[in-house]
Amino acid sequence: MSRIDTTFGNLKRQQRKALIPFITAGDPSQQLTVPLMHGLVAAGADVLELGVPFSDPMADGPVIQRASERALKHGMTLRGVLSMVAEFRKQDATTPVVLMGYGNPIEAMGWEVFAKRCEEVGVDGVLTVDFPPEESHEAFEHLQRHNIAPIFLLAPTTNEARIAQVAKLARGYVYYVSLKGVTGAGNLDLSAIEQKLPQLRKHIKLPIGVGFGIRDAATAKAVSRLCDGVVVGSRIVQEVEDSTEQNVVANVGKLVKELRLAIDQ
């Protein structure tokens, strides 16, 4: 059983919901990414989403765009991200790590080389924002061969046929984008999420995580009642941006503890 499956299974038995924070690898510096990952776990994270910085992050709003720009200026690469996961695994063998990014860096490396390296360093899942299921078959085969979960996005506009298609390919969990727009955009309509989830669950047996636009503990708590996991990205990346390198781990940890407490209530 994979780390992702084990984690969600344990949470289900405890009647708890997953907290899935996102940070961008290499932001605020390459040296601080692994300490931040450990800090997130210590503060109550169940699954880590580690962003692979890319020059054209089309699904991301200004906060994560700036984080990608900073990370790229610091020399962050896909190979560097994979090395960070290997470093993280020296102390943490149990927390699932999902790489979230775009297809170009992986295509440049080659899917077979990438998937093999992911397995070697301890990556558990890969979410490629700009790879729809119709284009994912070759990637899916490589990931499956190396025991890496392909994780897909679904949106408020996703139709029934596409939901069914994703249900066949997805492993680990499915990420439901809670609003129309980029990361960190708009205000959540909880009733719209509540109305959409039964349609998703008709096809999807995996856990469903909800993200995009979750800005505070109260929203995280409300969303957690509707799904299996809460994904928080822009709010955490904003905290990274607003902090100094000396206090960033403590500040982000404090925020994640507040989210954890709210979700567990």
Outline of the structure:
This protein is of the alpha/beta class. It has one domain: TIM Barrel (Alpha-Beta Barrel), CATH 3.20.20. 49% of the residues lie in helices and 14% in strands.
Question: What is the N-to-C succession of helices and strands?
Answer: HEHEHHEHHEHEEHEHEHEHH
What fraction, in percent, of the residue positions are helical? Answer: 40-55%
- Low-confidence regions: none
Instruction: Tell me the overall shape.
Output: globular
The CA-CA distance between the termini, in Å, is 29 Å
Largest sheet: 9 strands, parallel
Any chance you could write out the topology, listing elements then pairs?
Layout: H1 3-13, E1 18-24, H2 30-42, E2 48-51, H3 62-73, H4 78-89, E3 97-101, H5 103-109, H6 111-121, E4 125-128, H7 137-145, E5 149-150, E6 153-154, H8 160-169, E7 174-177, H9 190-201, E8 208-211, H10 217-224, E9 229-232, H11 234-242, H12 248-264
Parallel strand pairs: 1-2, 1-9, 2-3, 3-4, 4-5, 6-7, 7-8, 8-9
Helix pairs in contact: 2-4, 2-12, 4-6, 6-7, 10-12, 11-12
